[in-house]
Amino acid sequence: MANTSFSAVNIIAFLIALLSIYLTQKHYSQTLPVIKFFIIPIVISYLFVIIVTAIFPDFDKRSKKVRSYLQYRTLGEINAINYVQIFPPILAVLIIFIILLYNRNLN
């Protein structure tokens, strides 16, 4: 069975493929759609994955460490300000307010 987990390299390669589609559409709009939307993004993302894994073999380990650090910091800050406990009532009031505004009941 193949490994189907996504890594940081795959996500960055996907974003680069989308960027290549955008740039190809912007600068070479007369290109065939099969080339523009299929062949070029696949080749660019494949080359990116090959080059990054060859140059930085531990890129995924480092990205997992960065992700863990960011999760620890953000969840620690959210728990420190106790915003999670106050957010649901504020959200409910905001939804009711938006509904009243939409129905024009606040004249």
Structure report:
This protein is mainly α and 107 residues long. It has one domain. The chain is built from four helices and no strands. The longest helix has 23 residues. The N and C termini lie far apart (63 Å). 3% of the residues are buried.
Tell me the number of structural domains: 1
Distance between the termini: 63 Å
Main sheet properties: none
Strand content: under 5%
Order of helices and strands: HHHH
- Helical content (DSSP H or I, runs of 4+): over 70%
Radius of gyration: 23 Å
Count the E strands.
0
Structure at a glance:
This protein is mainly α and 107 residues long. The protein has helices spanning 8-27, 33-55, 59-81, 83-102. Helix 1 runs antiparallel to helix 2 (33-55).
List keywords for this structure.
mainly alpha, 107 residues
SSE blueprint and pairings:
Layout lengths: L7 H20 L5 H23 L3 H23 L1 H20 L5
